[in-house]
Structures are given as C-alpha cells and as structure tokens.
Amino acid sequence: MGVVGDVLSDGLGGLSHNVITGRIEDLVKWARSRSSWPASFGLACCAIEMMATGAAHYDISRFGMEVFRASPRQADIMIVAGRVSQKMAPVLRQVYDQMMEPKWVISMGVCASSGGMFNNYAIVQGVDQIVPVDVYAPGCPPTPETLIHAIETLHGLIESGEIMRRREVTGAGADVHVEEIPATSVPVLLGSS
Amino acid sequence: MTMIANEGAQEMRPRSELSARELFREVGAVLRMSEAEASALGDLPEDPEDDQTMVINMGPQHPSTHGVLRLMLELQGETVLRCKPIIGYLHTGMEKTAEQLTFMQGGTNVTRMDYLSPLNNELVFSLATEKLLGIDGDIPERAVWMRMLLSELNRMSSHLLFMATNGMDLGAVSMMIYGWREREEVLRFFQKVTGLRMNHNFIRPGGLAADLPAGWRDDVLRLLDMLPDRLEEYDVLMTGQPIWRERLQGVGVITPTEALALGATGPILRSTGVEWDLRRDMPYLHYDEVEFDVVVGTYGDAFDRYAIRLNEIRESMRIVRQILDRMPSGDYRIQDKKVTPPPRARIDESMEALIHHFKIFTEGFRVPEGEVYVGIESPRGEIGCYIASDGSPTPYRMHMRAPSFVNIQCLPHMMRGGLVADAVAVISSVDPVLGEVDR
Amino acid sequence: MSAEVTTDGTEMSEDEVTLLHGCPLVDSRGQQVLFVSRDRYLEVLRLLTDEGFAMCVDLTAVDYSRFMTRELPDGVTAERFEVVVNLLDISARRRLRIRVQVPENDPSVPSLFDLHPGTEAMEREVFDMFGIAFSDHPDPSRILMPEDWIGHPLRKDYETGSIPVQFKGAPS
Ligand code: SF4
Asked: CA-based diameter of chain C, in Å?
C-alpha cells in the first residue's frame, strides 16, 4: 500500500505518492467484509436479540451492518435468527436463493443451528439442512456480544477466504460462478481518444 | 413467494371462486356485517373482466418488524376489501414438547412462547401448576411480591419494545433507537436478577429460582428515575406530532361488540372503552393490594392502542414503586420437600439432600390428577394456561391461550375498508408476537 | 391468590352434583366445570351466552387416549377426545369451563362460529392438531401446519421425534 502522510490535515495531498498499490483481491475482500448488509430474516426470540444488536447499545453499524435490508436482493448476509419450522423452510430457502452472490449465512441461536430444545415434528433440526451455513452463533438466545463475535468471525472468513469460493469444493459459503475471461494482449491506452 | 409457500386451502381464495353464501359466512358472520351489506359484497360483476380487485400477498418474510406473519389482502385500488392472516410459519410444537418435559422443566419451554414477556409466561405456567398441586395459597409473601415486580418490569420492557417497533413501522426511525435504549436498561436489571436477558425460566412452580441480588432496589430506583423523562420525550416525539396522529387516528378501528365477539383482550379490548384488566377484575398475586388505574381508550383505533400502552408503562411504574415499599423479607420459594430442591449448602453436607436434589431435577415431582385453567394479564392480553394432569411428573396436556393468537384474528376486521398503506400501522398496533401465535 | 372468581352461589347447592341446564356442574379446584354432551353442546352454549357468558376465551381439546380412567361425574362416559371451552362473563367476572366428550370413531363437534366468531381460528387449530372436525365451520383448513401435512401432531399416537425436512418442490 502507498505511504500515507498526515491525511487528516493535508487530505490527499498528504500522500507521498499519488498511487496506492495493492492487490485488487485484498481490496475487494476488505470492501466486502466492511459493508455486508444483512437480510432481516427474524424468526423468533433470537430476532429480538438481533434487533437489539442493531440498536443503540450494541450499535451494529460499527461493522458496516446497520442496513438491514428487507429485500433479499440487496443483502449479503442472511442471519437466520430463530427456529425454522417445516412450514417456513421452503420460504427460507427461497429467500436465500433470491440473494445475490456473494452471500453468507450466519445461523443464530441453537434452534437454527440444531433445533435446540425443540426436537419435535415441527422444527427443522438445523438450518444447515436447507442452506449452507458459514458461522454458527451459539446460545439461546445468543447475546448481542455473541452475535457480534459471530459477525467478526465471518468478517475474518470473508477477508481470509478466496473471493471466489466454489461451494462444490468447500461445501459452504459463497457460490460464485464466473466465466473466466482469458487475458488479452491488447493494451489499454490511456489518454487516446 | 406465493409459488413455494403455497398453503392451498389456508389461503384466501379469489372472490370468483366463492359463492355469495360462502362469502357471507366468511365476511358476514365474522365481521358482523348487515346481511344486505354482505350480500352486496358477494355480488360479482357480470363480466369477470369488470372485477377490479386484486389479491396481494404480504409476508411471511416482510419488512414490518413482526416476524413471520403472512397476510393476504384483497384490494380494490388502494382499499382493502378482505384480509386473511395466514399463520403457522413459526409453529414450534411447544405444546407437544411440553408433554415430554416435567413440570420443573416446563418453564424453559413456555418462556419461549411470548418472547417479549417471558416472565409472564412462566408466571401463568407456575400458577397453574401450583393450583394443581394445591399449594397456590402457600407461596411465601416475598415470592409473590417478587413475581409481581418481575411481571410489571416485563410489562414495561414489552411496551417499550412496542414503542420502538411501532415507531419503526410508521417511519419514526429514531423512535426505534430510543425504545431499544430504554428496554436495554430493563434487560440489564433482568440479567442481574436472572442471569439472562430473555427466556429467563426464573419463575418456577413453588416460587422463584433465586433471591433478588444485592443492590436490586437501587437498580429499580434508577430505572424509575430514568424512565419518566424518557417517556416525556416520547410524548414530544410522537404523541403530540400531527404526522403521528394523522397516521394513527381513525386507523384500524374496532368496536367493543366486535372485540368481545372475537375474544380480543388486552390493549385491543381496552382501546374500545371496555374496562377489562385481569389484574384488577380477577386479581391474582397481590394485585388487589396495589393501586393502579386501568387505562382505556375511546375510539378503538390504533392511536388509542398506542396511547394505552404508553400510559400502561406509567401505571406499571406506579405499581413497581408500591412493590418496592412493600417487599417483605422471607423466603423466595416454598419450603415444601415435594416441589423445592434442597438449598445448595445442604447438598454438600447431606447425602439425602443430594439424592433429593437429583430426583427433583431428573424425575420431577408428581402432580395430582385434574385440570385447571389460569389466566393472567400479559402485556398483550389474557394469557391462559390449561393443564391436564394424569398424576405423573409431566403434564398430560398443556395448552396456552395465547393473547396474540386471538388478537391477530381481529386484523381482517380492523383492515376492512382501510387503505393498504395503513395495513402496517394496524398490524403494528395489534403488537402480535408470532412465537406466541404459532407456539 | 386464586386467579378465579367462582360462579355466584345461586347455581350451587349442597349436593355433590349440581345441574346447570341439565348438565352436571362440578367444582374443580375452585373452578366451575360443566360437562355438556355433544348433542346439547350448541344449545347449552347458546343459553349460557344469553346468561352473560358472552366471551369465549379459549377453545382447545385433549386427547385422553392414554388416560381413560380420568374422573368424570356420573352419567358422563369417557371418550377419547375432549373439547374444552373456556367462557368468560365480563360483567359478573366469572368463568365457566365446558368439557365435551367426543368419541374417537366420529370426531366431530358443531362449530361455535355463529355464537362466538372468535373461535374460528381456535377451532381450526384444534382441527389441525387433533383432527376433530367442526361441522358448519366456514373455513375448515389447517392453520398451523402446512396444508399437505399428514397426521395430527397433538394426538397421543403421533410421534414427537424429529422428522426429515420436507420440501415442496423448492429448487435445490
Ligand atoms: S435459540 Fe433460543 S432464543 Fe433463539 S429462537 Fe431458539 S428458543 Fe428462541
């Protein structure tokens, strides 16, 4: 990365070089992890704690996540907060399918992770039967601290992972299918019209 | 979403598939319309092309902050003609699970029903169990007052959350932050007392799980000092605001007759002017010994329901103050060998105590045959617990009369003839908790 | 600490089994329970509604197939199912519980919809969970379980255990 001088007082003029170098992959991963918008998928008691995490005391916007999107198309992370019933399972899957790649899933609470104390006919015993889960947050309900820890863990995963992981290989996480465009040798000339 | 979450007959059928008589059954009897009005509704235009209505689907995953409620609305332009709530997306089979858990463990289960007022769920379950055991008169004074204290604080936290979500649903986003901020303060107290922020399982058959921690009185006083100013702030922010009033007044109106016929309780019933509060009218615990007012509305609209909840916070604070004055010392649970585990200190000394402790927690205690129904006033209305026992340590059948489940059936009623933009305001003013609706 | 207010003394007399509208009225732990036969169910409820029990607070059912020896007043034969209705009289502040025996081979009960429209959802729930049909119900469909679910979960012969996820044609 470039050498940065006193940016606060000098602005960009404080850069000793006006070019910053780095790997685009790092930049992409950094950007992704720092503004991952969650889809509001509140189901039960855990959803209340998820909302509490978004409120004043815990202030989830410190992690660039305060924008809970109602539309799955605009969301990056699905926080499955609460118990998933048999009736809800197809809906959950559909919302997941509607989310754009790359996407991640946090399974919040024991109910979402394993069915929790409700091992009965009505509850899906673990949401990972329906969607691939990246991080499990334990607890019933997980306190906002636990959720924040899960989010941090996920950020770590996003930043250390490949930007294009394939689910067939890893079995989890973002399912990005890009067509490889072979590099061409045609130079891009700047300044020529 | 309709494609996959297709619930067939549970969904609202298009008007053209219904005969006029069926429609009268559906709309007429429930909504208590006049027969002429209802049959006019059933009149289909000659040409189906003229049918200008449209059925839209809201939910189960939708922006308003009330979980997984799904509504189907029939619209004509922007007017809602019919509405049908479709529920069950959070059905957890708790009543079945309750049959596997002992009376001792049951609290863990019921507390997860209405997750905004868990302590009231535990309370009603414990009261029902105690009635079955026949020890309902022997609960120590301190335990009773502690139960009241927790129940009232829980009412406050639940209503504060309503303030937040109601504000959020109507676009007052800063209210969202404020409501949660205050609720968090109450939760801190709960965490100190019960160890958990939610789903406490603290009120148990026979008393409570533990005594109040040292310094609890100061914590409660701090809460009571803090809240009045904050509530004033709400008044400034919302109650007096023309936009807020425009948005709520005259929206989602329900009459007393309708509310009673539909079995609605709590703030919904009170908003229509019917004074009915189980705390006053069928007192349990020591509610007959404290002084408080039952807040009622006049018009039965969403604004009344908002105002009632806001003022109920104030009434609860009044009750809490009286509880602070009267909190006796003594035991926090009944000293009945049958239902109470031995004190921790005795377990270290005596083998019998250890065995006793082990037995109570693994096998539970036997409860005499019979069945009871106990109802108390939760923040959302009458929460009732019906337990049938066959003499074993687990309930033979446990059923919860969930206030939200009944209140939500008022939605079609409140929405009929309203604007689709008000739908969210109406849902919000009913304040349903889906965990309790679906159980 | 009783949460109940008992019915006022008028209907209670000294003998063990009192009758209210010809049905045995029992005092169970300070709560009034009325055992109504299925044939007279609607009729008695209509009478009670006129008497002031205008609000139907709760309607549920119990599957007693594993507990047929329960205590019932004379003249009431135990059947597998019981429909339990909780009525409330707001002005007199009293409650009344109705228990109706429903046989296994014909699990059906008349619907209370015309008297108490609020029971619509509760009856659907009982149908969903116990498979008790309510005749004349305006919308006899499941309410909590998915529409194509097989079985009635709260029956005692329905297993509790977890079951594999059921998909309804969702794209994988
Ligand atoms: S994990 Fe606990 S808190 Fe979360 S949904 Fe399940 S029961 Fe509720």
From this structure: 69
- Which residues neighbour B12 within 8 Å (Cβ) at sequence distance 6 or greater? B55, B72, B74, B82, B83, B84
Asked whether A141 lines ligand 1 (CB < 6 A), one says yes
Residue type at position C57: V
In chain A the domains, ranked by start, together with CATH numbers, are 35-177 (3.40.50.12280)
Residues of C in contact with B120 (CB under 8 A): none
The string of pLDDT tens digits covering residues C31-88 is 889 999 888 888 898 888 888 888 889 999 999 888 888 888 888 888 889 999 999 9
Query: What confidence score (pLDDT) does residue A174 get?
Result: 42
**Cβ pair B373:C58 closer than 8 A:** yes
Query: Is the pLDDT reported for residue C20 higher than 50?
Result: yes
Strands B203-204 and B79-86: unpaired
Same domain? B65 vs B199: no
Confidence of residue B126 (pLDDT cuts 50, 70, 90): very high
Contact status, residue C101 vs residue C76, Cβ threshold 8 Å: yes
Q: Do C29 and B26 touch (CB under 8 A)?
A: no
Alpha helices in A139-193 (DSSP H): 144-160, 167-170
* Same-domain pairing of B20 and B119: no
| Same domain membership, residue B115 and residue B65 | no
Between B247 and B348, whose confidence is greater? B247
Domain count for chain B = 2
pTM of the complete model: 0.86
Identity of residue A131: V
- Token reading at A6: 């006193």
Mean pLDDT of B87-107: 87
Mark yes or no for CB contact B91/A85 under 8 Å.
Answer: yes
pLDDT at position B45 = 52
Distance CA A134, CA A144 (A): 18
Supply the DSSP symbol for C161.
Answer: S
Q: CATH assignment of C1-7+30-66+74-158?
A: 3.30.460.80
Instruction: Give me the CATH number covering residue B226.
Output: 1.10.645.10
Dig out the tokens for B372 from the structure. 């009871």
DSSP states of B38-78: HHHHHPPPSSGGG--EEEEEE-SS-SSSS-S-EEEEEEETT
Residue B411 within any structural domain of the chain: no
Q: What ipTM is given for this predicted complex? A: 0.84
User: Looking at the structure, do residues B164 and B217 belong to the same domain, yes or no?
Assistant: yes
The dihedral through the CA atoms of B385, B391, B392, B393 has a sign that is: positive
d(CA A165, CA A173): 7
| Whether B245 and B385 share a structural domain | yes
| Weakest-pLDDT range from A177-181, B293-297, C63-67, C99-103 | A177-181
* Domain assignment present for B249: yes
Which residues form the domain of B299?
94-334+366-401
Q: Mind listing the pLDDT tens digit for each residue in A165-184?
A: 545 454 444 443 434 444 44
Task: Based on the fold, state whether residues B77 and B106 are members of the same structural domain.
Answer: no
Distance CA C139, CA C142 (A): 9
Cα-to-chain-centroid distance, residue A94: 18
Q: Among B86, B110, B135, which residue terminates a domain?
A: B86
**Which chains does C contact via 3+ CB–CB distances below 8 A?**
A, B
Is B48 inside a domain boundary?
yes
* Distance in Å, CA A110 to ligand 1 centroid: 6
Domain boundary (B86, B114, B140) is at B86
A83 — contact with chain B (CB < 8 Å)?
yes
Region at C131 (left for phi over 0; alpha for psi -120 to 50; beta for the rest): left
Residues B78 and B106 grouped into a single domain: no
List all chains that touch chain B, counting a touch as 3 or more CB pairs closer than 8 Å: A, C
Please give the full DSSP string across B230-281, using - where no structure is assigned: HHHHHIIIIIT-HHHHHHHTTSS---HHHHHHHT--THHHHHTT----HHHH
One domain, residues B131 and B157: yes
